[in-house]
Prior knowledge:
- The complex is a heterodimer of chains A (233) and B (118).
- Chain A is an alpha/beta fold.
- Chain A is built from eight helices and seven strands; from the N terminus they run βαβαβαβαβαβααβα.
- The longest helix of chain B has 51 residues, at 65-115.
Amino acid sequence: xxxxxxxxxxxxxxxxxxxxxxxxxxxxxxxxxxxxxxxxxxxxxxxxxxxxxxxxxxxxxxxxxxxxxxxxxxxxxxxxxxxxxxxxxxxxxxxxxxxxxxxxxxxxxxxxxxxxxxxxxxxxxxxxxxxxxxxxxxxxxxxxxxxxxxxxxxxxxxxxxxxxxxxxxxxxxxxxxxxxxxxxxxxxxxxxxxxxxxxxxxxxxxxxxxxxxxxxxxxxxxxxxxxxxxxxx
Amino acid sequence: xxxxxxxxxxxxxxxxxxxxxxxxxxxxxxxxxxxxxxxxxxxxxxxxxxxxxxxxxxxxxxxxxxxxxxxxxxxxxxxxxxxxxxxxxxxxxxxxxxxxxxxxxxxxxxxxxxxxxx
Lengths: 233, 118
């Protein structure tokens, strides 16, 4: 794929020293169009060092902002540096880097504003827990009745956006539950959003930040935040 | 009645001194302290002029202690809401600063790298 466009691969990372090197390497293998930009969210381990050695641009936050603040830093950087598109990839290795060109291709060729890599495709490697699946289904249903959007995997952080959305997100990006909430933002801005299935692997290392015990409480908070977003000025 | 007046008067003086001390030691900014100074002033006025309570009761129709408690409760809720708003704003400003700091730091490192004597 040769577009001669600059694409920023934004990797928010908090204590991912074990997996970040491999993720950055995977992006380097994609070619010159792609720059790996690691936003180190004040990790206490060697995340920044490992990422730098692997050849990434590393931006270090002096305090922990959480994923929303970290990703937005990446959008601000990419906007200032004149990138044509951004793609967000998790630092834990659950998003397969070789799928990045597919998302970008859909974004440019089919003229979407946002393309989401969804994890709903049969894959023996990736087994999703029942609670998580239920939560994702409920969120998806909630999004459909409130906005009419048809997105199955609302919490997927594997997503590509074009320049127009970058400009918007650099100024305003949800901080609390960025993945589902930014979909509501997108709806309100009238953006064209497309979801495509991607093969994902389970997290290479570490645990998901969402534990089953807290997921019910999490769901209520997310839906409340999404509902309020609908009415935000 | 006199006893109560003295006690309330002492409370208001104590409150005023504490607030003043906090401003002097810069724990509190004047902007937020005005509320507390006015509160101590209101308590002081009530202790010096107990008849005021009667006048307020007649105007508002609040005769019962529960009604007064509700007023106090609403006042406290309003203060808490005020602080939530202040904290949210500070968090937002903090986020913006952290992001800008990180981006500037990267830019400085980049420039240093470029200007290194070869």
